Amino acid sequence: METTVSNKQVILRDYVKGFPKESDLMIVIASDTVELKVKPGSGAVLVKNLYLSCDPYMGILMREPSPSTLALMDSFVPGKPIAGTGVSKVIDSDDLAFAKGDFVWGMVDWEEYSTVNPAGVFKIDVNINVPLSNYTGILGMTGLTAYAGFFEICSPKKGETVFVSAASGAVGQLVGQFAKLMGCYVVGSAGSKQKADLLLNKLGFDDAFNYKEEPDLDSALKRCFPKGIDIYFENVGGEMLDAVLLNMKTYGRISVCGMISQYFLETRDRLQNLPDIIFKRIKMEGFACYDFMDKFPKFLEFVLPYIKEGKLIYVEDIVEGLENGPRALVGLFNGQNIGKQVIQVARE
Amino acid sequence: METTVSNKQVILRDYVKGFPKESDLMIVIASDTVELKVKPGSGAVLVKNLYLSCDPYMGILMREPSPSTLALMDSFVPGKPIAGTGVSKVIDSDDLAFAKGDFVWGMVDWEEYSTVNPAGVFKIDVNINVPLSNYTGILGMTGLTAYAGFFEICSPKKGETVFVSAASGAVGQLVGQFAKLMGCYVVGSAGSKQKADLLLNKLGFDDAFNYKEEPDLDSALKRCFPKGIDIYFENVGGEMLDAVLLNMKTYGRISVCGMISQYFLETRDRLQNLPDIIFKRIKMEGFACYDFMDKFPKFLEFVLPYIKEGKLIYVEDIVEGLENGPRALVGLFNGQNIGKQVIQVARE
């Protein structure tokens, strides 16, 4: 039986300027092979990575860090593997909390095998009957993001109107479904007819539109929300935010999860409607899921019964092979994905 | 003894486009004279206006209303007097709550004599030994604005860093003093050396700068806040807000009271740093003082002892004569005023 294996990795070539490209990343075989045993006394946990999560914030971490982005997270390091959340199988462990054969999720480098920090991974309960890939999404940080951003930041009430941009994405599809479960009226925008159809026909949104086909976003929002928007779950920024501000109701709340349309622009969209924040006494609040880790048990308590009853569904876009990771990640910034973008690195 | 008098008024000529000008307002003598007695049974309260408040929001109300501005307040009506808060003396009253000779403050039209809605004015306690003009400012809506916007929206803590723009203005000077009373480190910006000196030498700010003399606002803020800003009290918007976002700390709070630099621009300033709201999990919240009327007693309880002890001072810029009202009000939008702009319509 082999005791060492090679380790394929996805490396950041150099800090990205402008829009991330596939060529900003490269696939390498690490010069060090991986020994499939951990040293006794090391406290280490060695895992084989099965699924990797592609998330918009990773595009920010591909860029040169600034004091602003460092407030969120350290950038990736040129010449080193990029990282994100993933689902992995324990190959060997010197930590009592993990045993060979356990499945875990947490932060891992983009590679086939990782030695992980035991404090940074969570054991997966295999009695919960969901695909393992779900721990990159609905049952992982993505789910917590949707939960905290909607419930904690927006304090939704039954009957309120909710708009979600990038609504078929990893987070958006959950926010829309959470809002429906709360008895809200929910509209989503997405970047293709296929995605808008998904929102309407599969995810239970009350209405949806393809923003690329709307000559005027303000008109689209007025059509969907003749009486205005109580809650906006912000994933995109720029001209969509500007149009939303015009259509917010008094005391509206904006949960700022992302501004993916703006991150890579040298000159960002001009907003004409920021004074609406005063006129309508709008609260706009940025958040990051890791500030809400203490809410994780409460989140699971909320979400698991709905998953078991089939009342929450989750659309994933799974690409097979670590070598296809760069294309999948960069595709996220162009809206190529339909649902949560996941990379399957290995079968168990 | 005369029983009717003429009534000078300040009339909005037509909805203002672009920047308000003195010529957008005109002084007229109302065609109806004012009878100095109210009709028994009418429930009316007739007042003689002594002081009128000039406030930035009045510039918004001079423009054609939009669904956005209507969420704040109705616009002024072309051909009719403009309105705002004022201090008045009761001439005659058919309301039991008010007697001839009482002093009141509340909403009045810009004119010499007004018949006011008794529900919209508050009796002034003359035992509180402050100038009557203060009820347009520190003891009126302006004071409540500073109080609610700082304490209710920003939840300040001792030792936090606070930045106030338009800091020598009606609201800003109070926010800065409130912040010092809370044990915060406070810096203000203003539009002249004289105003910056006022902040430093009279109002007790820890530091101050004249934004017009700063080649780069980001550098100015970095100089004043090497470790960043916890709380920004926003009065101006535009490029100042953009620079502030770069200098906010994680979990920073922005109380959005006004964006006076932006209201009258056809093309508003482009902001490059809105994604900092996410990176730093910033809360940005618009507010209007009238949403906090229930806090008025608590506000007085807080502010009156400090006024009595001389620990809060209030700088007013009083212009005499209603006929000088248009110049004073328009001057506000150019930063002509030093401190709270008030018009003295009459001596008692």
TrEMBL record, chains A, B:
Kindly list the GO molecular function terms attached to this UniProt entry.
2-alkenal reductase [NAD(P)H] activity
Keyword match Oxidoreductase: yes
Which domain of life, per UniProt?
Eukaryota
- What InterPro entries does the entry give? ADH-like_C, ADH_N_2, ER, GroES-like_sf, MDR_fam, NAD(P)-bd_dom_sf
Alphabetized, the UniProt keywords read: Oxidoreductase
| GO BP annotations, alphabetical order | response to oxidative stress
Instruction: Give all residue intervals belonging to the Enoyl reductase (ER) domain.
Output: 30-343
Pfam families from the xrefs? Answer: ADH_N_2, ADH_zinc_N
Task: Output this protein's name.
Answer: Enoyl reductase (ER) domain-containing protein
